[in-house]
Write a structure and sequence with these properties.
This protein has about 525 residues and is an alpha+beta fold. It has 12 helices and 25 strands.
């Protein structure tokens, strides 16, 4: 039986509707206004900067908000608009990374109760190849659940601990002004206050259909009664249609589309581009978005500089003062132990280290960190082909804002085992260490003396899955060839010269201090 999934019944408008919150809101608002989007429910600050109407009305079709670590944004987008939204980012931001979940928030499936879940509740098979977790609290009448039963479930989010979609047996029907819920109640958005709230509660009691309740969304506060009545009628018909299809549809299929879930990373070059866009609207200090992602104390300094100093101080003078503050207060110092946050394109993060900062060099080109690491024996070094043996160590060279991380591997007798050059987004410093996104392609000098480019097939897969842009993929390919040529030429000798300087500096460290530090780093592994 062929079933065409229903769509979320949101009103169509001439322009896509987008709501943007967080530290990237000014830059992204400018970007999407320039691309003919309508900004919905702007903050008062954004409304003032762009002369927008802050009145909350229709609901957003695309919702954008900061990730917890502020390194990018999370997005919920109507599937019909996702490609338009992501293409704008790919066109403008040089190294943006966009990961789309395999499931959509709010999508409805007819699944089968599969088996009890380890965390309680049940595992529901929603397609032949995908399971979901139904917690006990999301089951309306858990005594009626039996293994093998068909069941309608709605995707709520992704459970972080298992990676499975988290679903509910309570099916909702969202619109622009209201959401129908499967309980006889009337609720109102917490953003609606006073007499308007009371009127909506009373109106909801009159309008709600039998066996359904209403949650009035923020936009309901500014809608006419006729619009609210029309919306409830539309949602009621959609609810009846969804339940009717659910009755006759076979199991393991989608009954309604939802919102695409996107996780978007803004590496350093994308942050710089967003800085440039923001500066067209409001005074913006150098490295604004990197600093805002650094920590809350730095955020306060940036806000103060831009709001209260920029109008009285030349921006060049202000930027130079910020740069001095960064060097003096924020950048790691010698002798520190740093973590290297090796973020993978697929979202996984590997912590390398800790690595001890032995030397810091500064030139007109860059600030360079030269670090020492011990490795646990056993197995082989990936890509190099040399065994991990007792006493092995590595010297890692990291220039701030550079797009490569170099590690040379040595035996206990200082014999070179190989060199690994990781191609990545520009290296950014943060309170506990260095951060970048690994772009998967690496260039290595193996134990056999041959220079190779590794893992290009992963890059091609990410390109085909539209996680990275063709522009970024082309840059990585070109960069890999440049590094290979360099490493086959003078690169090896340049790296070994740096390593000799690091070893000489280590020899200056008192023996008891060095032993204490090396023992500490070794417990963490490579």
């Amino acid at each position: 039986m062929q079933i065409t999934p229903l769509e979320i019944p949101m009103r169509k408008t001439d322009k896509p509707r987008i709501r943007i919150r967080g530290i990237y809101s000014t830059a992204l608002t400018k970007l999407f206004l320039d691309n003919n989007f309508e900004i919905i429910q702007p903050s008062l600050e954004i409304a003032e900067r762009f002369s927008l109407n802050p009145e909350r009305y229709l609901s957003p079709q695309i919702d954008v908000f900061d990730k917890n670590n502020r390194q990018g944004v999370n997005v919920e987008s109507l599937a019909t608009l996702t490609n338009i939204f992501t293409q704008i980012l790919f066109d403008v931001l040089p190294d943006v990374i966009i990961k789309k979940s395999k499931v959509q928030k709010g999508a409805v499936y007819k699944g089968i109760v599969y088996r009890p879940a380890p965390k309680g509740g049940y595992l529901i098979k929603i397609t032949p190849n995908m399971d979901a977790w139904l917690p006990m609290e999301e089951i309306k009448n858990n005594s009626s659940i039996k293994l093998g039963d068909p069941i309608l479930v709605e995707i709520k989010d992704i459970d972080k601990s298992t990676g499975l979609p988290r679903v509910s047996a309570s099916i909702t029907v969202p619109g622009d002004f209201a959401v129908l819920i499967p309980e006889e109640a009337v609720r109102v958005s917490h953003k609606i206050k006073g007499g308007v709230r009371d009127k909506l509660i009373e109106l909801g009691k009159v309008l709600r259909p039998d066996n359904w309740g209403i949650i009035w969304r923020t936009g309901a506060a500014n809608a006419d009664v006729s619009e609210l009545q029309e919306e409830i009628e539309i949602l009621t018909r959609e609810a009846e249609k969804l339940l009717e299809i659910g009755e006759r549809a076979p199991a393991l299929i989608k009954l309604r589309n939802g919102f695409d879930i996107l996780e978007i990373d803004f590496p350093h070059n994308s942050k710089k581009k967003l800085d440039e866009i923001r500066s067209q609207v409001f005074p913006t200090v150098i490295n604004h978005h990197w600093l805002k992602a650094f920590n809350n104390d730095v955020t306060k300094i940036v806000d103060f500089a831009e709001k209260y100093l920029a109008s009285n101080v030349d921006m060049e003078i202000l930027n130079n003062a910020v740069l001095r503050m960064i060097k003096r207060e924020l950048l790691p110092k010698e002798e520190r132990l740093l973590k290297i946050h090796h973020k993978k394109v697929n979202g996984r993060e590997v912590i390398l280290g800790p690595a001890k900062v032995v030397m810091i060099t500064e030139s007109s080109r860059a600030i360079e960190y030269r670090m020492f690491r011990r490795f646990t024996p056993g197995g082989y070094y990936d890509g190099i082909g040399a065994p991990k043996e007792a006493g092995d160590y590595g010297i890692t060279i990291a220039r701030l804002w550079d797009s490569k991380l170099i590690t040379a591997y040595f035996s206990v007798s200082n014999e070179l085992k190989g060199i690994y050059v990781n191609i990545n987004t520009p290296i950014e410093p943060y309170p506990d260490g260095l951060r970048y996104v690994d772009l998967e392609v690496d260039v290595v000098l193996g134990s056999d003396g041959i220079v190779r480019i590794l893992d290009t097939q992963r890059l091609e897969r990410y390109l085909s899955e539209k996680i990275i842009s063709p522009k970024l993929a082309n840059w990585v390919r070109k960069k890999a060839e440049e590094i290979k040529t360099w490493l086959e030429g003078k690169g090896k000798d340049e790296i070994l010269d740096v390593c000799s300087e690091v070893r000489a500096k280590i020899e200056e460290i008192p023996e008891e201090e060095e032993e204490e530090e090396l023992e500490f780093t070794e417990t963490f592994g490579p």
